[in-house]
Every structure is written in C-alpha cells, then in structure tokens.
Amino acid sequence: MKKLIGPISQVLTLDKLFLKGALKDEQLEIIEEAGILINGDKILDVKPWKKLLKTVPEAEKIELGGKLVAIPGFVDCHTHICFGGLRAKDFALRNAGKTYLEIAESGGGIWDTVSKTRKLTQRELAQITANHANRHLSDGVTTIEVKSGYGLSVEEELKMLRAIQQANSMTHADLIPTCLAAHLKPRDFLGSSSDYLKLIVENLFPVLKEEKLSNRIDAFVEKSAFSPEEIDPYFKKAKDLGFDLTVHADQFSVGGSKVAVAFGALSADHLEVSGEKEISLLSKSNTIAVALPGASLGLGVGFTPGRKILDQGGSLAIASDWNPGSAPMGDLLAQASILATFEKLSTAEVLAGITYRAAAALGLKDRGKLVQGQLADFILFPTSDYREILYHQGRLKPAEVWKSGSKEVW
Ligand code: NIG
Ligand code: FE
Asked: Where is the Amidohydrolase-related domain (predicted)?
C-alpha cells in the first residue's frame, strides 16, 4: 500500500553524498514543501508535495500540519546498551581526579558491570536492552548496534547475545548484535589472554553461527585489554569464518587502528589518541573511523580527530558508545552536535556520520538516505530550518519517528 506523507518544509535526502571525505552543506539535496511516498517499508519517491498529489492520486494521504524537516532515521553504530547496574560511583571518582584505569584496578570499571550483568537473567537483560532501545528510538535512532562484552565467559556472552536477540523483538528499532567477548580478560579466568581468546574461538564462535546470534566480532585492543599480537590469531579465525570485524582502537594507547586496517575491519572506533600516522593509515583505507564523543564527554578526554580524518579523505561515522561506564549519557544527537562544534564539522558531515556512513560501518546498504529503495526510516523535526537540528544541541526532539514505513506511537 502506497502512502504519501507531507507536506514537509524541507526533506534532506542525503542523496549523492559520498561515503568518504569532507562534505559541504551546499552538497545537501534539500527538497522544499515536499512529500515522501512510501510503499510498505520502503521509500518510493521524494518530490514536491503538489507534484506527488498529481502523479499518485491513489496513494493514502497522511497530511501533516506545521513546520517540519525530514531526515533519515539515525543509525547508532556503537553501543553497549545491554548491561546490568550503573556506575555513578566511577563517574564521581573520575571527576574527583581518579583515572579510568585506576578505577578499573580498584574494583570499578568494566569488571564491575560484568559482575552486575552476570546476576541478571536473559529475560531481565532483554527488557533493559529494549527499554534503552526504545528511548533511543524516541530520539530518532532507528538502527542500533548492541555489543555483548559484559559476560566474558562462553555461557554469559551467550546469555547477553540471546538477550539482545530477544530485545530485538521487543522494540521496533533494528538491533544489530556484535560479539565483544574480547573486551577484557575475565578476572576469574585462570589462563592467559591467548588461552581465553582460544576458548572463545572454539566454544563461542560456532554457537554464534548456529543460533545466528551475531555476524560481527569486536575486540578492545588496548594495553589494559588485548594486545595486537593477542588479537591477531583471534581475528584471523573470525575472518576465516566470515565474520565482519570492528575494533575498539586507539582509545588510551595506539595500536588498534593498525589492526583494524590490516584486517579490513568495517570500522575502527574511538581513536581519541590517534596520531598523524594512524589518521593517515585510516583515511587511506576503507575502514570507517567512528568517533564516540559520548566517551570523551564521560571521561573528560579529547575528541576523535574527525576533521583531520575527513580532510585526508577518510570516512567518519559518529556513535554514542552508550554504556554504564565511560559514556552514560546515551544522547547521540547532543553528542554529535557537540563534536561538530569542537571538531568544526559541517552539518552535512554530521548528518552523514549518524546516517548512511554509520550504516556503512555496520555493513548495511539499505538505510541512511531517503532515496528510492531504501528503508522508510525517517525523523520529522519540528522546525523549517534543518540547521536547527544541530543548533539546539539535542534539545530539539522529533515530532514523529517513522520506522520501516510505520509511525512510532508512544
Ligand atoms: O567503548 N573501551 C572499552 N569499552 C567501553 C567502555 C565500557 C565500560 O566502561 O563499561 C567503551 O568506552
Ligand atoms: Fe565501546
């Protein structure tokens, strides 16, 4: 059934924008007084409202009132929204001068969340994940990557990934699961890091395939987590088995971005401490750089060098990293707006970074632009000037969110 939605003051299709490199706002395709024509869950056309009224009179009309700007639904390509408990204590300690690593060593950090997550049932975790996803959806985030990584044993990682799968049927947002068993060597594992990774390869990877729990493998390449040498055989095996790869890279020390590029990972995420060498390597590759401004804001560290990556021809996505430790805010639009101010990113670059470039970081080609054949995932913001979306720094909330051709009701 065809539906014609409009009139809309401005529709930003993001058509004809490239995957890589800097973008200027003049390159944005803006269709004024437009209608969006959809067929089922897909976009059929975006054209001036009056034209569409004449050419498809048979379509069901959904008439909107007032000023509205439409843009593609946001894609958050890096989150950890499946977790138990909070870490407000860590946040207070960091603000009082302790470092992320000091807190981790004294009982806080990732391991604290692992202990709290292990105490929950799959059903409880699914409910928490769906609640987080629904909050994100009401902010316009229609596709959400969700990592495991707070289980850190074969059984507990499986519990998390099954919970994410279950949560996917409890929200209209699309959840894209990623296995982050290589987040940290678990404290209760007696062997070496390499022994732990071997255990995951042998006992978890086959179940991921059997139960179709995830087609993506992530690793935290960091001095305090796994070294490039330890990750090398792990990623080789994952790649041989056909998994897509992504890396927590260059967050506190460099090394991860090189691993990401060498393995042809879809994305290298964080990059707060990437230097000229790393920026150049990434920018020449097809690996998408993912900035996580929420982690910079949560930890009080510098932002990912997005401007330099774009100017050297790289592709930049922006994600929330929503997690209970380093990035508790979970507001993608506010964070992307703030990153724009500090890194001097154009509106086109920011919007690309939270739509089609983020979709590409997940290997998804069917969303992120409002053009024929793409999923009918879009947001209507209550304004007639698209620049206000970033200008209000996250305070301008969607008037409507459409996911796969249906309007969300809340
Ligand atoms: O992306 N860097 C490692 N992992 C997460 C933090 C997880 C946590 O602190 O619980 C991140 O920032
Ligand atoms: Fe993360």
From this structure: 70-383
